[in-house]
Amino acid sequence: MGLERKAKVAEVALRCAVCALAALAAALVGTGSQTRTFFSLEKKARFTDMKALVLLVAAHGAAAVYSLLQLARCAAAAAWKGGSNGGAAVVAWSVFSCDQAVAYALMAATAAALQSSVVGKRGQPELQWMPVCGLYGAFCRRVGEGLAAAVAAGLAAVLLAAVSAFNLFRLYGGGGGRKSSAGAVSGNGANTW
Amino acid sequence: MGLERKAKVAEVALRCAVCALAALAAALVGTGSQTRTFFSLEKKARFTDMKALVLLVAAHGAAAVYSLLQLARCAAAAAWKGGSNGGAAVVAWSVFSCDQAVAYALMAATAAALQSSVVGKRGQPELQWMPVCGLYGAFCRRVGEGLAAAVAAGLAAVLLAAVSAFNLFRLYGGGGGRKSSAGAVSGNGANTW
Question: Where exactly are the transmembrane stretches of this chain (chains A, B) (predicted)?
Answer without folding.
Answer: 12-32, 52-69, 90-114, 147-169
